[in-house]
Structure formats: C-alpha cells, structure tokens
Amino acid sequence: RRCADDDVVADVLQDTYLAVWRAAGGFAGSVTEGSAVGWLWTIAANRLVDAFRRRARQERVPRVAQV
C-alpha cells in the first residue's frame, strides 16, 4: 500500500473507477497502448498523487474563524 489513510484510499479508488469508466472507450481494443492492467495502475497512481497534492494544499491554507 502506498497510503495508510483508508479514507484517502477509498476516495482514490472511486476517482480511479470514474476515470476508467470515462476513458474506457479510448483504450478498448488498443494493442499499441500496452496492457489494461498497466493503464489502470497508471490512472490509480496519478489519482493518488493528486490526492496527496490536494491534502498538502488544504493543510497550507489557514482556516478562517467563523464570526
């Protein structure tokens, strides 16, 4: 596992499923693009990096107190 936070893993998994669903037509039948498993892993890894970046950005932005 690349992430110990189960909530982040669940979010990344959902984002990966959505990305695969949306892009599946572009991959289907493509022999030159490589394996489907490699394609899935690449999407999942990119989504995980995106989640880490979002988390880092959220931690840097100070929260404003409600008045």
From TrEMBL:
Pfam families (alphabetical): Sigma70_r2
Any one biological process term the GO annotation gives: DNA-templated transcription initiation
GO molecular function, a single term: sigma factor activity
Entry-linked Gene3D superfamilies: 1.10.1740.10
Chain ranges passing through the membrane: none
Keywords attached to this entry: Sigma factor, Transcription, Transcription regulation
Residue ranges constituting the RNA polymerase sigma-70 region domain according to the UniProt record: 2-57
Protein name per Swiss-Prot or TrEMBL: RNA polymerase subunit sigma-24
Source species: Streptomyces microflavus (Streptomyces lipmanii)
Classification of source organism: Bacteria, Bacillati, Actinomycetota, Actinomycetes, Kitasatosporales
